[in-house]
Amino acid sequence: MRTICLLGGTGFIGKYLASRLVKNGWRVKVLTRQRERHRELLVLPTLELVTTDMYDQTQLNNSLVGSEAVINLVGILNENGNDGAGFRRAHVELPQKLITACQVNRIQRVLHISALNAEAQTGNSHYLRTKGEGEDLLHAAKDLQVTSFRPAVMFGEDDSLFNRFASLLRVPSYLFMLPSANAQLAPVWVEDVVVAMLQALAEPKHIGQRYCLCGPQIYTLQALVQYLAQLMEVKRLIIPLGDNWSQLVARIMEWVPGKPYSIDNYLSAQVPSICSENDFAKFGMAPHAIEAVMPKYFSPLAGKSLMYSQWRCYAGR
Length: 317
Fold this sequence. Notes:
The chain is an alpha/beta fold. It folds into two domains: 3-154 and 188-213, Rossmann fold; 162-184 and 217-272 and 290-315. 40% of the residues lie in helices and 16% in strands. The protein has helices at residues 12-23, 57-63, 85-105, 126-140, 162-169, 190-202, 221-232, 243-253, 263-269, 290-293, 295-298, 303-315; strands at residues 3-7, 27-32, 47-51, 69-72, 109-113, 145-151, 154-155, 175-178, 184-185, 188-189, 210-213, 219-220, 237-240. The strands form four sheets. The chain has a seven-stranded parallel sheet, with helices on both faces. α3 runs parallel beside α4. The protein is globular, with a radius of gyration of 19 Å.
């Protein structure tokens, strides 16, 4: 049985990808620091949770032994500080360690989740610059066969987009102040991204490519929040905040536990998260619309599932 190793496999996209890989006949190794927190993954018959500090080069080297391919899903939306060091550690230093570990173990095939608008030199934020730098490092690495994916913000049952706003909408208040309300997004269903990744893993023609993946429709952030409120049957007057107020809210929210919004988030939102060319077409796919997926998670009848997803979002699960 072929073995594949997932870095960041306990996160949002990881559970979808791990399940599909197991169904496709792979033995899946998921690296994690806290094995006991993710035992729900062990229901997958050929999945193994491996306790590993991925930032320790020796441990990472040892954890990749016997793997035929590696998928890097590691990414953070915010850091503890505000100087970019946390982003650099997750998005640049870890890919560099991954390159070394792959070379030590003679692993060639690597799939990598980057981000739409990731650019090492010109990215608007620490997030976008470090995502771009890590992506470039992997593609330039000797002896690696890399495919990277640049998805727009992803949505699904346990996402950090809709679930976070759903939690805020449930707070009793007639007014809802929304920073970066005019930010443009083309959210993409996580399951569509996973299907594209599995195709890339199976077909050598995708080696060396970088794919931008978006949903079929462009929205403003305000339109998405209004749609979510409609699904939840919650009446709120959504007040869009201008740039100055959005920056002020970002600075204040950086001090809130969990940092739900930050200056770096604000800066990332200044660039439309949309595709000039949607590369799903190269996989023969038509991505699903939000309206075809999200009602089953966020209608009033889905209340228990919604509350559970929100708890997981804030707990970092």
